[in-house]
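WARN  no MSA supplied for this record, continuing single-sequence
INFO  ligand: NAP
INFO  echoing inputs
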Amino acid sequence: MAVLAVIESGSDLATALYIVSFSLFIFGVRRGTHPTTAKQGNLIAAVGMAIAVVTTLLLDGIGNWGLLLLGLGIGTAVGVVASLRVQMTAMPQMVALYNGVGGGAVALIAWSEFRHELALGIEIPLEELIPIMFSMVIGSVSFWGSNIAFGKLQGVIPGQPIKAPGQQVLNALLLVGIVAACVILASTNDDPSQGVFIGVLIAAALLGNLVVLPIGGADMPVVISLLNAFTGLAAAAAGFALDNVALIVAGTLVGSSGTILTLEMAEAMNRSVANILFAGFGGAPAGGGGAATAEERPHKSVTAQDAAISLAYADSVVVVPGYGMAVAQAQHAVKEMADELEKRGVTVNYAIHPVAGRMPGHMNVLLAEADVPYEKLREMDEINPEMPRTDVAVVIGANDVTNPAAKNDPDSPIAGMPIIEVDEAQQVIVIKRSLNPGFAGIDNDLFYHEKTSMLFGDAKDAVSQVTAEVGNL
Ligand code: NAP
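INFO  complex generated
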């Protein structure tokens, strides 16, 4: 099919359009920092991406429109259908899949660029070969690692850490082999071997699988965020190889924001990234932990009616949502309960822990979906000082993020993790199905505290019952 080149590569027009596109990315990311402007930020960044794609397609040297349109059509159809159908609780695995596709695309671009340079039969300049190798290796690791992360979250492969003896040694050998092969390719850049290049691609694929398999399923959101940063860096390197400024800026944005998010998630769990990658912590992401439960310890169990009385006659209530609210899809029921309480003059706020649930912003997104006003979503550092003045803290499907062991027990696996200090409130109501532990697999002393009442049941059903009882009072 005829080549439709209307913009000269490297021309002022191409550069100007790329500058517009990446300015929109940056502006979009900036708008994404607050829930009220986040949707708009997404749209702005999407417009920036559309400008970058159209500009690139219109550059001279771009051809085969039939194939391009086929790819665009398939990609758009799959993306739109998948995004419309995905459940909120399945969002982490969808992000993993998209990230993997991005990494895989970068690796393929690097390979095709390598073949293109080989076909020219001239020496490949090192400033091109090095970014090609970098984007191919990192893109491939990201593709395969993200696929494993997807499989673990989707339950296609077991969520438990899958370890083999000597695995770390094998990973180290693979890494050394990849670096050695890259050095060989760079030193033979007047006639590099495609066989060695493909060998590196395969070794990087193996490494991506082997690094992620031993990590517990529930740590996957952090792994995905890290692999996302890798994909960004790989894309930026591909931008250097292709001399495409929009790709360099977009890749760097993804790389830096992914790195910051990874570090923040690790910090909110009081764990290092190395511990997450190598300690094999946590099992399947389903919410139940692995440790023995402590059903025999005395605790106070209440009915929905008891809980309703405590809540309805309180002045201030703080809702602490967690993973169980997401699993039960209880966010709308929670909003209805808050509305019912507010009708009676109770002040209701929501305490949001940075790693409540299983992905960053999980609670914010769910509560925003249920139309909870943004100003009622209070961050942990902001709400904790108010806890002693709170009449009732109602914990809905949250566990680890409220566990006082984090501050009281230096030997606890979550020691030092900042928590929502519900134990400081006047009264605590915990809504969950049992005394079972959460992600960290450890018992929660909060459940046995004298000021705590346990309301056992599925979060959605239990909260709806409480709302009905408040209405009856
Ligand atoms: P959690 O500690 O995992 O506890 C969730 C609780 O929800 C479980 O104890 C479970 O108890 C309950 N639950 C499950 N299904 C339920 C249902 N249908 N109705 C009512 N309750 C239900 O959750 P969290 O307090 O939100 O803490 C998050 C944990 O995930 C932290 O340890 C964090 O470090 C980790 N993590 C978070 C992220 C992130 O980005 N947010 C990433 C990786 C890891 P029952 O079985 O008794 O009902």
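The two ends are 74 Å apart (CA to CA).
INFO  checksum written, moving to next record
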